[in-house]
Design a protein that fits this description.
3-stranded antiparallel sheet; 11 helices; single chain; alpha+beta
């Protein structure tokens, strides 16, 4: 697919030629193709090598770390959350790590967690907020409810199990082996890594890890998609396995990624958003296809429309 076809789909989705947007595709055996338009708030061209906040794309990266540390014998997905985070209230004893991976942990809602924060959103701040909250109404494993706090807990659990800080652990197990030279987890103290497309000072990216904290480029994210499609880490089968409720009900959410069907094929996708940035990564392993869309705006509908348009053109 040449860049001008991506540009046509971008216009159809509502993007203008001056909007800060990067859209890219990769297909097994061929080089990636990118559309790049607009500039960052600092006036620099916005392109596939621009470091931007990945928001909830962090979740599949943390899930991969869980899988790799589990493979090394460092933890088990059926162990209780309280084994790694004993400071949490008694309700954590019935929450399993696998519950958190699939957002069925029954943790207090993110609105309650955010309301209990006493300072900036950091990992320790989220855990401190959880310690003040009562037992949730829904038992673990009984319903799917998207939980940012659950992935903060997962990140902390894998950090303690591996005995290494999450940024260093991800660098060692994921980013360096896969050649993701620009990608990193960032927990401050500055609101953004050096050289990144910083967000508005009125809405800086949170410094919590697991639910967010990932900064990457469109080029690196396509490399990540290719690596998962080719199972370069040896854990893609596990990461792509849909979760289940405790009663056996199959979910449309795997390890940090949604599971969908399009044109008769399985598509794994997940978005990320924060004020000033929207991103969506989609993969079709059976065709060796990866799609990334990152825009410096707040329009989720455009991001989804462009991603869907690219998938339709590639798969039809």
């Amino acid at each position: 697919m040449p860049a001008h076809e991506i540009a046509q789909l971008a216009r159809a989705a509502g993007y203008r030629a001056t909007d800060p947007l990067v859209a890219g595709i990769s297909r097994r055996g061929g080089p990636p193709v990118f559309l790049r338009t607009g500039r960052t708030a600092a006036g620099r061209p916005f392109g596939e090598d621009t470091l931007a906040y990945g928001a909830s794309l962090s979740k599949q990266v943390v899930a991969a770390l869980v899988a790799l540390v589990m493979r090394q014998g460092g933890l088990a997905v059926d162990e209780p959350l309280s084994r790694r985070l004993p400071e949490l209230p008694a309700w954590a004893q019935s929450v399993r790590l696998r519950h958190l991976l699939h957002h069925v942990g029954g943790l207090p809602g993110d609105d309650l967690v955010d309301g209990a924060l006493t300072g900036d959103r950091t990992g320790p701040g989220v855990l401190a907020a959880l310690r003040t909250l009562p037992e949730p109404a829904a038992p673990p494993g009984t319903e799917h409810a998207y939980s940012n706090a659950g992935y903060v807990c997962l990140a902390e659990a894998v950090r303690r199990a591996a005995g290494a800080e999450l940024p260093a652990l991800a660098e060692k197990l994921l980013f360096t082996p896969l050649g993701l030279t620009a990608t990193r987890f960032w927990d401050g103290p500055e609101p953004a890594p050096p050289g990144a497309a910083a967000l508005s000072p009125s809405a800086p990216a949170p410094l919590s890890l697991g639910d967010g904290g990932l900064w990457s480029t469109a080029a690196d994210l396509l490399r990540w998609a290719d690596a998962l499609n080719d199972s370069s880490l040896g854990v893609s089968g596990l990461l792509q396995a849909p979760g289940r409720l405790d009663d056996g009900t199959i979910l449309d959410y795997a390890w940090g990624m949604g599971v969908r069907r399009r044109h008769g094929l399985t598509v794994y996708r997940h978005g990320g958003g924060w004020p000033g940035v929207r991103t969506l990564l989609a993969r079709v392993p059976d065709r060796g296809i990866g799609v990334i869309v990152t825009a410096l705006d707040d329009d989720t509908d455009r991001t989804v429309a462009l991603t869907d348009g690219l998938l339709d053109l590639l798969l039809s």
